Amino acid sequence: MEDRSRCARHVRWSYAGRDDEQLVQAAQAGDAVAFEELHRRYHRLVLSVLQSEMRCTSDCPDVAQEVFTTAWRRIGALRDHSAFRPWLLQITRRQAIDHARWMGRRPTLTADDELCLVLAEDVAPGPVELAEAADLAGRLRDGVATLAPRDATAIALAAQQGYGTAELAEALGITTNNAKVVLHRARTRLRVALAA
Description:
The chain is mainly α. The chain has ten helices and no strands. Helix content is 77%, strand content 0%. Mean pLDDT is 79; it is low at 1-11.
């Protein structure tokens, strides 16, 4: 049993140095450990995008799981092995939209919804030195919630993940110039929302 564990760790370590293209090729050949490494690399990014697009963040881990399940099922259809990240982000955005539609059709509150309400009520100011930061965080969250999903994603990728316009364009599936415009307009809309 210990030999298997050592072997599994060795296999994971051997994938750690590989680039995304190699991992995608291996995953397309059915290598679940290669896909596990892709999951490890991109899980935080997927959660970050989902948190920027979804109102109830307690659902984000479930939706993220659905994103990676969908990616695993469809990885064979990915033709450009170097385009894994934008392809995964596209799946992420679609899952967030599908989840929002599903939530809109739900007629009654579930335990998850009640948890979201409790968590929203629990956002109380902390110690005095953190009160201003908590207030700003709440205002930012409210401001981002008023943005269109693409604008919220653009803000999250630029601010939280440090994406430049070229990476943002790739993630959103638009041109670099369009990404500059989208980001500028999103920031302007966020400033207006925060000033209100």
